[in-house]
Amino acid sequence: MEISNIIGYILAVFVGMTLGMLGSGGSILSVPILVYMMGIEPALATAYSLFVIGTTSLIGGVHKAKQKLVDFNKVILFGIPAVISVFITRKFIVPRIPKIIFTTENFILSKSILIMIVFAFVMIFASFRMIKPFKETTISGEEKLNYFKVVTMGILIGLISGFVGAGGGFLIVPTLLFFAKIPMKIAVGTSLFIVSLQSLIGFTGDIMGNQIIDWELLQVFTLASIAGVFIGNFISRKVDEEKLKTGFGWFVLAMGIYIIIKEVFVSLYFTKYNF
Questions:
Q1: Residue 51 has pLDDT above 80, yes or no
Q2: Which listed residue, of 44, 138, 165, 255, carries a Cα 20 to 30 Å from 202's Cα?
Q3: What pTM does this model have?
């Protein structure tokens, strides 16, 4: 086994730890680890990420359900449009994106570069939400549930999640808070189940396609991530959640900027000088 793979499996533990501590953010780490440490092609890495995050989130979701912190009505309401959207994205949209989208004298925009750039911008967006202190609003029992907005956000988040291989917890939690009108702790638990459903069903879109899956690598990576969930749950009881979220947000911001620099400017340099 190569040293880079060993490091990748160790880092997979941190993917699970992030989900265990914050209820989201695991996919922000899994795709870069799979691409840069495990040598997985970006489009395939997004498929692997969906399986890893889906399985790991399911374990976390079951744990939350035992604590009665999951609103299964909202899982169905939000989850169905999200699941349909992510499946269509993985099955029909991603496979039809050409390997070379366009070229100039100095730059080639490939499918792999596009996926990583979009993912980097998703990382940066997520980092701002993590860095900024979140104030939970008081919800009035008289407020009506906005079904249209919840379903629309489910479709949109499913599309984003399917394209970049992200679970979307950092988008689902605020949607459940502001549009589904549920408390923060229940929003986190509910989000884990939604992430699990849309990620695992999205992954089936890849299985039904022509993707060749390295099941041994995927299973070891997933088991390491699941172990991380339990470590993250333990740490979350000892450390202030807001400090963890803010620190991780700065790390994600740095990673997002790094990916943009690497994929755009390095690719531009190599294209210009024909490396």
A1: yes
A2: 255
A3: 0.74
